[in-house]
Amino acid sequence: MNSRFISSASHDVSLELDFFGVFIGLRTVVIVVAAYFMNAVHRDQFDAHVEDLATTGIFERVRHPMYLGIHLFYLGIAIAAFSQASVGVWLIIFTFNNARANYEKKKLEERFGGEFLKYKRNLKKWISI
């Protein structure tokens, strides 16, 4: 066999393995971050039985941490599947949850009035950096 061909083929395999490792790592990070957001919502909101406007804990950083966690989870799945169909599913889920977040925003404005408006001004809908 030609040694140039073997060297070139092993180099291609090495690049593919490097890409695969980065790909798996990225997917894992996205899914872990998603799990963090979803768990933080339960800990900060549901386990504490909060009846007032939640503005502490995870809610200091993200207005909709549960939906953000869901978005990131499905984004991780889309990255892992590496297909147009999985990206399409992610876009549908994002659109649906975005509409739900908008509906909840209206309900929170009705229930908490100025307190929620102030909170909303200080924090973006999805990620505030």
Biggest β-sheet strands, sense, barrel = none
Low-confidence runs of at least 5 consecutive residues:
3-9
Number of domains: 1
Supply Rg: 21 Å
Q: How would you spell out the order of helices and strands? A: HHHH
Please indicate the percent range of residues in DSSP E strands (runs of 2 or more): under 5%
What do the pLDDT scores average to?
75
Overall SS class: mainly alpha
| Separation of the first and last Cα atoms | 56 Å
Based on CA inertia axes, which overall geometry fits?
Answer: elongated
How many alpha or pi helices?
4
* Assembly form of the protein: single chain
- Number of strand elements: 0
Report helical residue fraction.
over 70%
Protein topology:
Layout (H helix, E strand, L loop, with lengths): L2 H44 L18 H17 L2 H29 L1 H9 L7
Helix pairs in contact: 1-2, 2-3, 3-4
Could you describe the 3D structure shown?
By secondary structure, the chain is mostly helical. Helix 1 packs antiparallel against helix 2 and helix 2 (65-81) packs antiparallel against helix 3. It has four helices and no strands. The protein has one domain. The relative contact order is 0.11. Mean pLDDT is 75; it is low at 3-9.
